[in-house]
Specification:
Length: about 525
């Protein structure tokens, strides 16, 4: 069973029983069908970013139109990816948007006349440089993409909140039907021994696996104060028994090692995978930073398989110069006909695409292959690669779409074909060889794009989607532009943390204030 099918099996069983089917076609403008759910970041626990949609052929994609009547009022900046639940609030198709103002709103995707519900979950932290010591998201509220459990009709998210005048991370479980917290929620993460809300930032996507919600943490932009890379585990049935694992547990005296990647925690249905950033006070002994780590779910607590982690040989140099391997989350994908079928990809601030055997991540320096796909001339801390990538397979091969940092001075994506230079998203093809290797095969010319995602109609039409202040769709094999939304600009640019989603044949883009939610319909 593939990564995607193994992780999604239970969720899809619920949807099939409800009478919905993946890929249902959307109909005329202003309506949506049942379609595939987007219940978490990049659709699947593997973080591959592929949404199945039988209706999304290239012909349909090329004819998409921005719906000018759809303009719901959104309070706050949107860094978290939108979610779509086909059988959502009271059984109706529902878009869910979370913002930095600690607002979560459930929207009817057919009309913006009124939301199903709009709730605020505490006061976000404002004036972060004073209140927290550093940071570049202000106000700071909900940043990490929530996750939806279709069985319990609950949505889980972390809200940075002022509680009795002090910053506090609270993990909520909210009913999709009402917007109200479920009994026993929220839970305060400061209840985990060693966790300090003020120094920790939560920007990676949440994961839900076997009845446990996993929430990743790093620090604030600027690396102020002492923080750690954390993954906090909250059992859905007993939220007060939350526990956590941190990079600080791997070597006494070492700190940082933040989990920064937008996709947060990836999973193959059995294990959890995270990428970490720079550590400090590690000396000459590796202490869990600059790494891809495999975590074992709680029995009763999370543990790191440090014997089979991956980290570059130059990890000490990376630590010293803030060249995080963890600028982007790991992506898990399968190549069943290849000698090594179970792969993971890591995308570092060093501009290198690392291919890994996820069954044995390899240890120090033992990637299956490394490819320098991007470079920049600025400080190492800017980073050539960040955001969230995607992995997809067509009849012609398997590809990795990666996000290069538009704000990195002198950014160059290596290996772009003639006529496809100057942009900030590239695509590398992965060979089915031993070892597998990645080769850049196409690039966008557009810059300022956010994190890419992919639609697959199951009939050979695979489209890579992305947005800046316009939405674009590209042929998955060649990069030929399938959809050009530059004639219908969005109210503001999509943040690089974010990604478009396919909501039953409608492309949805959320942008930061002044902005909101825009829908492109067939």
């Amino acid at each position: 069973m593939s990564v995607r099918s193994k992780v999604a099996a239970n969720a899809w069983a619920v949807i099939f029983l409800a009478g919905c089917s993946p890929g249902s076609q959307s109909s005329a403008a202003g309506t949506v069908g049942g379609g595939s759910d987007v219940l978490q970041h990049h659709t699947h626990a593997s973080r591959d970013g592929v949404t199945p949609d039988a209706s999304m052929s290239k012909a349909v994609a090329s004819a998409l139109k921005l719906d000018p009547t759809y303009a719901p009022a959104i309070t706050g900046n949107v860094y978290a990816q939108p979610l779509y639940v086909a059988s959502g609030t009271k059984g109706k198709p529902t878009l869910i948007i979370a913002t930095e103002s600690n607002h979560v709103v459930a929207l009817d995707p057919t009309t913006s006349a009124a939301p199903f519900w709009d709730q605020t979950y505490g006061t976000p932290v404002s004036g972060v440089s004073t209140a927290l010591g550093c940071g570049n998201i202000d106000p700071l509220g909900i940043t990490g993409t929530p996750v939806v459990d279709p069985t319990s009709h609950a949505i889980y998210f972390d809200a940075m909140t002022l509680a009795n005048g002090a910053p506090a991370h609270l993990i909520h479980a909210v009913s999709i039907d009402t917007g109200l917290d479920l009994p026993g929620w929220p839970v305060a993460v400061d209840g985990v021994t060693g966790f300090t809300s003020k120094t920790q930032n939560q920007r990676g996507a949440l994961q839900l696996l076997n009845g446990v919600v996993y929430v990743p943490y790093g620090g604030h932009d600027g690396d102020c104060n002492t923080y750690y890379g954390w993954v906090v585990a909250v059992p859905v049935a007993a939220p007060s028994t939350l526990s956590g694992w941190s990079v600080g547990s791997m070597q006494a005296g070492a700190s940082r090692g933040g989990i920064w990647g937008v996709g947060g925690v990836a999973s193959d249905g059995t294990s959890l995978f995270v990428s970490t950033g720079n550590t400090t006070n590690a000396g000459t002994t590796w202490s869990g930073g600059e790494a891809v780590l495999r975590l074992t779910p709680p029995t009763p607590s999370l543990t790191a398989d440090s014997a089979h982690a991956f980290y570059p040989t130059a990890w000490m140099n990376y630590d010293a110069n803030d060249v995080d391997l963890g600028g982007a989350n790991p992506i898990l994908f399968d190549m069943p006909t290849a000698p090594i079928p179970h792969l993971a990809v890591a995308l570092g601030k060093d501009g290198i695409l690392y291919l890994l055997n996820r069954d044995d991540l390899g240890g120090e320096g033992n990637a299956l292959s490394t490819t320098s796909v991007a470079s920049d001339t600025g400080p190492a801390s800017a980073g050539a690669l960040n955001g969230a990538g995607a992995a997809y397979t067509t009849a012609k091969g398997t590809y990795i779409a990666f996000h290069a940092n538009s704000h990195a001075p002198g950014l160059v994506i290596a290996g772009c074909p003639s006529g496809q230079t100057g942009g900030n998203v590239g695509v590398a093809q992965v060979s089915a060889t031993q070892p597998p290797k990645a080769t850049v095969v196409w690039c966008t010319r557009e810059t300022g794009l956010g994190s890419p995602m992919v639609t697959n109609n199951g009939n050979g039409d695979i489209i890579v989607w992305d947005a800046n202040q316009s939405l674009y769709g590209y042929d998955g094999d060649t990069g030929t532009k399938v959809f050009d939304g530059s004639s219908a600009p969005l109210p503001s640019a999509m943040h690089y943390f974010n990604t478009p989603i396919d909501a039953a044949g409608n492309l949805v883009v959320a942008t930061s204030a002044p902005g909101g939610v825009s829908i492109f319909r067939p």
